[in-house]
Specification:
27% of the residues lie in helices and 16% in strands. It has helices at 21-31, 65-73, 94-104, 168-177, 201-213, 221-228, and strands at 10-16, 37-40, 77-80, 132-136, 139-143, 145-147, 182-188, 217-218.
Length: 231
Amino acid sequence: MLIPRFVKERYLSITCDDGLINSALKVDQLLSPNHATFYIVTGWLKLNPIPILDTPKIIYKHGSLVDWQLLSKKGHEIGSHTVSHLRPNQPINQAEYYQSFELIKKIQPGPYSLATPYGASINIQSPYDSIRLKEKRGFLKIIIDNKLDRIDFFKIVSWDPVELKFSLSKIIRILQKIPSRRWLVLRMHGLDGEGYCPWSATSFKQFIDSALRSGYQIKTIAEMTKLFKKS
């Protein structure tokens, strides 16, 4: 694929919360040879069962340790989404994160990252998943990109456009307008009816193809950490 000479230096990371294994396998196929970051709820894996309190998620498969090890071997990153998917009314419990990392260490070596359920405020050694809103002339502007020269790896800005609210054409227009020297993190859950606000596999593939045509380099969160985190 030929990339025009004027292409800007821009990076894209695809993250998927909740550890939905069927969607993860689709993302693996659609994204190849590039890779995604999957945030798994370690207590929901096979042979490590805890009650799933989020009723809609009971119907989904969350895979086994071996399933995620296989995806890791293919180059994908596996991160923490807590042990039990802490609910909004639960107190912050750092043990949830440390315990989940103990299992993730059996999947792959670090660096490790986490995505907090429901945008909770905990933040330990790892990216905090959020969207910042900046007021500008009476309007709220969504800030969805991270400047490469000053990335805060403890508060990574991400974007989770709902396909029903944002048409695919609008999402692609926003993608193309991201300035140079930027990193866009797309936050997702599942594909084809699975998970919270799922995308269709067709739309996801069109989005990825557009990103590649626009010269984006697709990297996992861990890969970006290795490239840009200052010691």
